[in-house]
């Protein structure tokens, strides 16, 4: 392999004399041929000039070899370059130390890029400082992704705040309407559903920026108020992710099941237990939630199935292309809910 990419000044001048033997040749070849942008600076010359910049460095910055050699790396800085990482670089050079910084640099055409710069000393076999090595990596896309993620989190927090206010306003309207019309019981029933939705959304908004959520957080948030002693509810699901659009359906379904269990089912008895499981059914790629009650009293299944809550659940699932099966076993109610996981559902 020939060392054709290196400038004559680097190959034949005093700088190249600081290396000797096969290791020096391999070093020079590696510096020239790597696709990572690299430059070497001479610590023994005034103002630490660049004595070598490989092809990748020139392509990254847009400058030619003649425009780079002999200049300090600061020529890549501009009006919006943060002085803090620059100060860290100066300290590392003074201490002959290694430093990694991210700073805003400018190309020849004036466009900017975020540079992840790795700066460090290079010594010869005698332990003498011969160069400062700098590798540059354009991390503009990485920075943009970080900024986008941070923005999404901020938006999620703001959305969470606004949704809490929205649910509070709706709840207040329902209460006022209930008192004016003398239907406080119906208003309380509606408000319980509103509160269940609020709990389901509140715990999942931060996660929703990724487009999907871990359904376990929503399930726990909706059901935890019904298990205040933490002894009558068993949740055994795993970290399944599902489209954020399913949260309303899941929240309301679980609320209706929990409300019925409290009035008529397992939680109407001191010995009653409810087990909730959730997983992805590999046969149809559907989010599957099972609800199993044990230890409750005998239930009038026909009365429950004719109730408002059952109608709400069935219509929600129909609109979401889901399904529900109810089995009235001797041990208690067993419900299986299936929801497609694809966003288009």
From TrEMBL:
* Keyword terms, alphabetized: ATP-binding, Chromophore, Flavoprotein, FMN, Kinase, Nucleotide-binding, Phosphoprotein, Photoreceptor protein, Receptor, Sensory transduction, Transferase
Recorded hits in InterPro entries, A to Z, give: PAC, PAS, PAS-assoc_C, Sig_transdc_His_kinase_HWE
GO molecular function terms listed in the Swiss-Prot or TrEMBL record: ATP binding; photoreceptor activity; protein histidine kinase activity
| PROSITE patterns the UniProt entry points to | PAC, PAS
Q: Does the keyword Flavoprotein apply?
A: yes
Per the database record, which ranges form the PAC domain? 99-151
**Alphabetized Pfam families for the sequence:** HWE_HK, PAS_9
Q: Does the keyword Signal apply?
A: no
- Entry's EC annotation: 2.7.13.3
Q: What class of enzyme is it?
A: transferase
Q: Which reaction does it catalyse?
A: ATP + protein L-histidine = ADP + protein N-phospho-L-histidine
Which intervals hold domain PAS? 50-96
Its recorded name reads histidine kinase
């Amino acid at each position: 392999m020939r060392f054709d990419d290196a400038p004559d000044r680097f190959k034949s001048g005093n700088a190249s004399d600081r290396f000797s033997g096969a290791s020096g040749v391999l070093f020079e070849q590696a510096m020239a041929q790597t696709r990572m942008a690299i430059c070497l600076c001479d610590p023994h010359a005034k103002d630490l000039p660049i004595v070598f910049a490989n092809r990748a460095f020139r392509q990254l910055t847009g400058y030619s070899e003649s425009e780079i050699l002999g200049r300090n790396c600061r020529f890549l800085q501009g009006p919006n370059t943060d002085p803090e990482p620059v100060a860290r670089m100066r300290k590392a050079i003074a201490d002959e130390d290694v430093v990694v910084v991210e700073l805003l640099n400018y190309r020849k055409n004036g466009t900017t890029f975020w540079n992840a710069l790795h700066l460090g000393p290079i010594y010869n076999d005698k332990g003498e400082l011969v160069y400062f090595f700098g590798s540059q990596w354009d991390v503009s896309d990485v920075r943009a992704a970080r900024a986008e993620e941070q923005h999404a989190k901020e938006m999620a927090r703001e959305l969470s705040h606004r949704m809490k206010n929205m649910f509070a306003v709706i709840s207040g309207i329902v209460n006022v309407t209930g008192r004016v019309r003398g239907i406080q019981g119906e208003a309380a029933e509606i408000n319980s559903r509103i509160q269940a939705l609020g709990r389901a959304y509140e715990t999942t908004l931060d996660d929703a920026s990724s487009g999907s959520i871990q359904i376990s957080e929503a399930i726990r948030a909706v059901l935890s108020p019904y298990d205040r002693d933490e002894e009558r509810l068993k949740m055994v699901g795993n970290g399944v992710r599902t489209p954020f659009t399913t949260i309303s359906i899941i929240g309301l379904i679980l609320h209706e099941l929990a409300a019925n269990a409290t009035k008529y089912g397992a939680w109407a008895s001191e010995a009653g237990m409810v087990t909730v499981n959730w997983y992805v059914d590999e046969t149809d790629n559907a989010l599957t939630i099972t609800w199993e009650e044990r230890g409750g009293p005998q239930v009038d299944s026909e009365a429950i199935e004719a109730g408002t809550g059952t109608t709400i659940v069935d219509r929600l699932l129909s609109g979401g292309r889901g399904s529900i099966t109810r089995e009235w076993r001797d041990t208690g109610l067993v419900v299986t809910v299936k929801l497609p996981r694809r966003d288009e559902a």
